[in-house]
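queue> pop job 88
queue> type: inverse folding (structure -> sequence)
queue> payload:
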């Protein structure tokens, strides 16, 4: 019974795609300027802090943002730049196997 309630509670705070994209864009523009709560307070569109925290957790887990030693949030997801760098002869991807 408690698990069912917890699932409903979690789903009640699931962010919409446009909200996630808005937070992503804002973080890209303000890269490394704000800590978590400061960033939330500065967003162009207000939202519940719990919803915002869900978005931040998703972005951290997906490898799109990082948090530095001061607690500031930075954008680290640059797939096009990575593709260009991998085309360079001296930079190659070894497939992840350790020797």
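queue> result:
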């Amino acid at each position: 019974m408690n698990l069912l309630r917890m699932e409903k509670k979690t789903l009640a705070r699931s962010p919409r795609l446009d909200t996630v994209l808005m937070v992503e864009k804002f973080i890209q523009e303000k890269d490394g300027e704000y800590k978590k709560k400061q960033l939330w307070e500065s967003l162009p569109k207000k939202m519940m802090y719990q919803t915002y925290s869900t978005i931040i957790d998703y972005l951290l887990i997906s490898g799109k943002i990082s948090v530095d030693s001061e607690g500031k949030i930075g954008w680290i997801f640059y797939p096009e730049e990575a593709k260009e760098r991998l085309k360079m002869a001296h930079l190659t991807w070894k497939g992840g196997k350790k020797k």
